[in-house]
Design goal:
By secondary structure, the chain is mainly β. It has a single domain (3-102), classed as Metal Binding Protein, Guanine Nucleotide Exchange Factor, Chain A (Beta Complex), CATH 2.170.150.70. Helix content is 5%, strand content 36%. It has 1 helix and 10 strands. It has one helix at 32-37; strands at residues 3-7, 14-18, 28-29, 41-45, 49-53, 58-61, 69-73, 79-83, 90-94, 111-112. The protein has a 5-stranded antiparallel sheet, with no helix packed on it. It has a 3-stranded antiparallel sheet with strand order 1-2-5, with no helix packed on it. It starts with a strand and ends in a 9-residue tail after the last strand.
Length: 121
């Protein structure tokens, strides 16, 4: 696993993340929240995310079952990461916030079905 720097837009929040299988885990989600953000997420194990600075600048958003934990910078509003509802032992991180990575360069990114979530069945 390669260690990556992830920041919000204003730089108030900085994370170090170890991607699980690199960017091969990159996905988009069609749930009501992710589809509005147009986000691309990659997988990080819980022990693979470290907040380097700005823990006090992170704020939490939850809805519906209040299981998933979505974090974003309360200064600039950029989503940084979330603890997954589908697997609470993983984080999804904002690929666009990774230093040196442009999601547009990743080609076709698979979609996950958040509308018909596996935890709702």
């Amino acid at each position: 696993m390669k260690n990556h720097k992830l920041t919000c837009h204003c730089g108030a929040v900085e994370l170090r993340v170890d991607l699980l299988d690199g960017l091969k885990t990159a996905t988009r989600c069609n749930c009501s929240y992710c589809s509005r953000r147009g986000n691309v997420s990659a997988t990080v194990p819980l022990d693979g995310l470290r907040i380097v600075k700005g823990a006090d600048s992170l704020t939490l958003y939850q809805w519906n079952t209040n299981t998933a934990e979505h974090y974003f910078c309360k200064v600039c509003g950029i989503y940084t990461h979330h603890r997954r509802r589908s697997n609470p032992n993983e984080y999804g991180v904002n690929v666009a916030g990774l230093e040196g990575i442009n999601p547009a360069d990743l080609g076709d990114i698979p979609w996950s079905d958040g509308i018909n979530h596996s935890k709702d069945i």
